[in-house]
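Run log, item B.
One chain of 119 residues. Sequence copied directly from the ordering sheet:
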Amino acid sequence: MAEKVIRVDDIDGSEGGDVSKRDFEVLGRVFTIDLSDDNHKRLIEALEVLATFVDKAVEVKPAGKGRKAASPAKVKGYSNNDVREWANSNGVEVSERGKIADEVYAAFIEAHPDAKPGV
């Protein structure tokens, strides 16, 4: 049994022997679309115009995801603020914000027998 495939132009809905799958590339991504010869010619012309602008343009990178949420304390039962307060009151150098050095956590755990290393 024979089958007949009729391609329909994805832009104007026309059918015809000249309608076929057409691949094209935009900014490194490949797309495919069913187009007649006339609409394929229009696509090529549009891509050439677009290429003129893209060649002169500068890519804008997406913005970062913003500030990360504060990381959980590395000591169960105590907050990072508790560790900082202890360090400051015991002459251990610690930053006011940001990452607390592993050595500070180790000293805190040593000074607090009930403290357990967190995950």
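Observations after the first pass:
- Residues 75-117 form a domain with the Dihydrolipoamide Transferase fold (CATH 4.10.320).
- The chain has a mean pLDDT of 86.
Flagged for discussion on Thursday.
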